[in-house]
Amino acid sequence: MRRWIAALVAVVMVFGAVGMESYASSQDLQKYQEQLKKLQSDMKKIDQQQRQLTANQKSVVQRIGSIENSIRSVEGEINDISDRIVTTEGTLNATLMELANAESKIVEKKDTLNQRLRVMYKTGHVGYLEVLLGSFNFEDMLSRMDMLQKIYEHDTTLLEYMQQQRDLVEEKKKALEEQRASLVSLKSDLSSKQKKLSQDLTSLDTEQQNLKKDIKALEAQEDRLNEDAKKITSLIAKLKTTEKYVGGKMMFPTPGYTRITSPFGNRLHPVYKTYKMHTGIDIAAPSGAKIVAALDGKVIYSDWFGGYGKVIMIDHGGGIVTLYAHCSSLVVKAGTKVTKGQTVAKVGTTGVSTGAHLHFEVRQNGKYVNPVPWVTG
Ligand SMILES: [Zn+2]
């Protein structure tokens, strides 16, 4: 969005306000002032965007802080649950041992009982035979059997008790396993939450980085607009200086090259292919050829200027200004006093141009005039 506006401003700067064919009128003080107004309104927009971005940045920083707190709290919970899992597992292991112990004791007791059963069976059986044979004390046998029966019954009760105890341990084991399972699932949920929070944090970090970049880009844009405004302001100041015309006859600005490929006045524009006012004359000259001051004067502009590319403007006093456009390089700086014939730039094809040539203009009191009568005759 800001880049879009920045691009628009750049386009307006190059092709609108300081466009090639509208240059003649834009050079007027009023035009400069309009450009300044536009620049100031663009700067206002940028200022609003900066405020918005700064507010966004503040909110992102706050969200980052709150997510970092959440992450810390989730990490604390995870640690607690991990501890509880360890504790539960310890208890579970002890219970498992308890269970194994109880079971082995039960097996032992069952063995004893089986042995007793066998003894009882044998005794009972033998006793019966002996009773039948009448060679054994029957009462002794009965009391012995009775005693065995009592021991057996006691052992059976004990076994039942042991089995009940085993069942209790079994229940405890089940409860512990359930507890562990729910803790593990809770931990897994918390880990997912932690992961999600980390992702949120990463995306917020990215957002913050992007905001920083956007703010930086806006600052650069603002700097450029300020620079443009400064340029136009200084140009206006220079245009206001009224000095007496230095006088004399202008010389051709490209020594050795005098062929005019495009005259002053209405013509079909070579790039835009529409009939437009040609505000100067185009002189055929190779790239790098010298461009000289047509007359004594003071350089009032030496810089890039929209579709004109690199431009020199020389004030000759009395409202007469000459302009040299599409230069490949500029030799003198703004403010320099130059004499007629002094090299001020080199021929080139910068800005909106189809090839190396010099676009030469003469301005008289803010209006463009045909330069031909000024340099010939
Ligand atoms: Zn031209």
From TrEMBL:
This is Septal ring factor EnvC, activator of murein hydrolases AmiA and AmiB. Gene3D superfamilies: 6.10.250.3150, Glucose Permease (Domain IIA). Residues 101-172 form the Peptidoglycan hydrolase PcsB coiled-coil domain. Residues 276-371 form the M23ase beta-sheet core domain. It comes from Acidaminobacter hydrogenoformans DSM 2784. Residues 29-56, 158-238 form a coiled coil. Keywords: Coiled coil, Hydrolase, Signal. GO terms for molecular function: metalloendopeptidase activity.
